[in-house]
Write a structure and sequence with these properties.
With about 300 residues, the protein is α+β, with helices and mostly antiparallel strands. It folds into 2 domains: about 80 residues, Phosphorylase Kinase, domain 1 (2-Layer Sandwich), CATH 3.30.200.20; about 210 residues, Alpha-Beta Complex (Aminoglycoside 3'-phosphotransferase, Chain: A, domain 2). The protein contains 10 helices and 12 strands. α6 packs parallel to α10, α7 crosses α9 and α9 runs antiparallel to α10.
Length: about 300
């Protein structure tokens, strides 16, 4: 259901405690529509979607906010129209994905500080690895179990049917299967690192203001596992996604870890496994969406990485 500004205004007029103003359409994600509005001199965002768990995860994640990790607070989650809504504080600035190359390079120190904030977040209250639920518990017993589960087309997944789509695509499922076979070998013996992972930092979920990260939101895809997974998002997509091209993200990470005195055992292979998994997961999504324009370059990129060491 595509909502109009008038529908959103009527909804807010009914639910807000005080009159609302300045309702505007914002760029939403794959699963939500987003709108900005003002109430009592403060600015907020309201999102509408079908998946309550996304908003509840955002609400839980807002408790992870720190000096290094700015997360807008989720104030309310409830039912709306034929689905759910969430109201959160609004941050202003430029989306990370909209920065030009000079601005992207200037924001690198703040970005790595934010990645440190995600990595350093205390998550001992919830167990497990991989995707976590609205109570903060991961669904897998190990990081490797999560990585290797990417091959399964589960009936309860939002992208169920991706295997058939991939098999019937112009390139077929051969590249996926080949890269997955390599992942099973590469992931053997990896350290079971367990940190918070955002898992969607290059998809219009980060706001920048004056060369600083000022908001990280949309934690629907968040995971527990190897913190290099968030870095892998940049090293994987940096070769084919224009907004983050032109930066040697791996070299920047190595220099940053050296500067802060962080030892990262098996850095190369851990990062490689994260990138291959991300590439496979992206191919599954493109199989579901039948997006053949992006499928082919991602399949090629994933195989290159899987064979790179």
């Amino acid at each position: 259901m595509k909502l109009t500004l008038e529908q959103v205004k009527l909804f807010l007029d009914e639910h807000a405690k005080q009159p609302v103003s300045d309702i505007v359409t914002l760029s939403g994600g794959q699963w939500s529509q987003a709108f900005g509005f003002g109430e009592a001199g403060k600015d907020y965002v309201i999102r509408f979607g079908q998946h309550e768990e996304d908003y509840l995860k955002d609400q839980l994640a807002s408790k992870f906010m720190s000096d290094k990790l700015p997360i807008p607070k989720v104030l309310h989650v409830g039912k709306s129209f034929d689905g759910y809504f969430a109201i959160s504080e609004r941050a202003f600035g430029t989306m990370l994905d909209d920065l030009d190359k000079p601005a992207m390079k200037r924001v690198i120190p703040s970005l790595f500080r934010t990645l440190d904030g995600i990595r350093e977040t205390h998550i001992s209250n919830g167990g497990g690895y991989g995707a976590w639920d609205t109570k903060g518990s991961g669904k897998y017993q190990s990081w490797r179990e999560f990585l290797l589960d990417v091959v399964n087309d589960r009936p309860d997944s939002r992208t169920h049917g991706w295997k058939a789509g991939l098999k019937n695509s112009p390139i077929g499922d051969g590249p996926f299967n080949e890269a997955y076979s390599l992942l099973t070998k590469l992931s053997s013996g990896l350290p079971e690192v367990r940190s918070l992972i955002h898992n969607d930092l290059v998809n219009f979920n980060v706001i920048v203001n004056e060369d600083r990260i000022t908001a990280v939101f949309d934690w629907a895809n968040a995971l527990y596992g190897d913190f290099l997974y968030d870095l892998a998002m940049f090293t994987l997509w940096g070769a084919i996604h224009k907004p983050i091209m032109g930066v040697d993200w791996e070299a920047e990470a190595i220099a940053h870890y050296k500067a802060i005195g962080l030892e990262v055992p098996q850095f190369k292979r851990r990062l490689q496994c994260c990138m291959v998994h991300l590439g496979l997961d992206a191919q599954a999504y493109y199989g579901y969406k039948q997006d053949w324009e992006w499928l082919e370059p991602m399949a090629k990129r994933t195989l290159e990485i899987a064979n790179s060491i």
